[in-house]
Amino acid sequence: MKKLQNEKLKQQFIHSSDYLDQFSFDISLDTHLFFFPANSYIVKEDNPPSHLFYLVKGKAKLYDTLANGKVALIDFFSPPCFIGEMELVDENQTAFSVQAIEDCWCLAVARKDCQKRLLQDTLFLQKLCIYFAHKNYRNIKASTQNQGFPLSQRLASFILLTQNEGTYREQHTQVAEYLGVSYRHLLFVIAQFVEEGYLEKIEKGYLILDIEALTQLSNEVKA
């Protein structure tokens, strides 16, 4: 994590992301710009975030480490969206890990400076309610897609979502559980993608060779 002292870039992100529309007061003076390199943590598990983050560029994933040591993927973040809003509303909320899939930029306000004012801001709370509703709908949609579409289509969509600079590196066990399929079935479909020339196996991952084919498969899920 790196706090950027770049006022021009901060203002560009503020205006391009409709950030100020989330609040009824001018929060720009209390807003900072943070940069998170790919694979770094925006939020660490069991460590409540010190800031309310607003993702303006990049992709990130949310996951939990279970009591048996397994890692369970929960959700994915694309801009613009809040990160750390649950902990802002409920200080007793256990923090899950949020990890950058690719380089991420976030606007952020320190909880200690703005939490009380934010929780008294009716516009901000209204925006949060809408945001929670959209997240719930997205999770329901993902669940129904797991039941209604072939793995090849869902995996293509997942690869495009989690790839970074044309490379896919997610762990098979976590992906199989997230997509609701067996480890063996997942490996079979990935092997098919390699055989058909969509992917190429490289060290610690896969290189995407035919993004158009994967996009076509993914669009069938989104239709």
Automatic annotation (TrEMBL):
<dbReference type="InterPro" id="IPR036390">
    <property type="entry name" value="WH_DNA-bd_sf"/>
</dbReference>
<dbReference type="InterPro" id="IPR018490">
    <property type="entry name" value="cNMP-bd_dom_sf"/>
</dbReference>
<dbReference type="GO" id="GO:0003700">
    <property type="term" value="F:DNA-binding transcription factor activity"/>
</dbReference>
<keyword id="KW-0805">Transcription regulation</keyword>
<keyword id="KW-0804">Transcription</keyword>
<dbReference type="GO" id="GO:0003677">
    <property type="term" value="F:DNA binding"/>
</dbReference>
<keyword id="KW-0238">DNA-binding</keyword>
<dbReference type="Pfam" id="PF13545">
    <property type="entry name" value="HTH_Crp_2"/>
</dbReference>
<dbReference type="InterPro" id="IPR000595">
    <property type="entry name" value="cNMP-bd_dom"/>
</dbReference>
<dbReference type="InterPro" id="IPR014710">
    <property type="entry name" value="RmlC-like_jellyroll"/>
</dbReference>
<dbReference type="Pfam" id="PF00027">
    <property type="entry name" value="cNMP_binding"/>
</dbReference>
<dbReference type="InterPro" id="IPR012318">
    <property type="entry name" value="HTH_CRP"/>
</dbReference>
<protein>
    <recommendedName>
        <fullName>Cyclic nucleotide-binding domain-containing protein</fullName>
    </recommendedName>
</protein>
<dbReference type="GO" id="GO:0005829">
    <property type="term" value="C:cytosol"/>
</dbReference>
<feature type="domain" description="Cyclic nucleotide-binding">
    <location>
        <begin position="28"/>
        <end position="135"/>
    </location>
</feature>
<dbReference type="InterPro" id="IPR050397">
    <property type="entry name" value="Env_Response_Regulators"/>
</dbReference>
<feature type="domain" description="HTH crp-type">
    <location>
        <begin position="149"/>
        <end position="212"/>
    </location>
</feature>
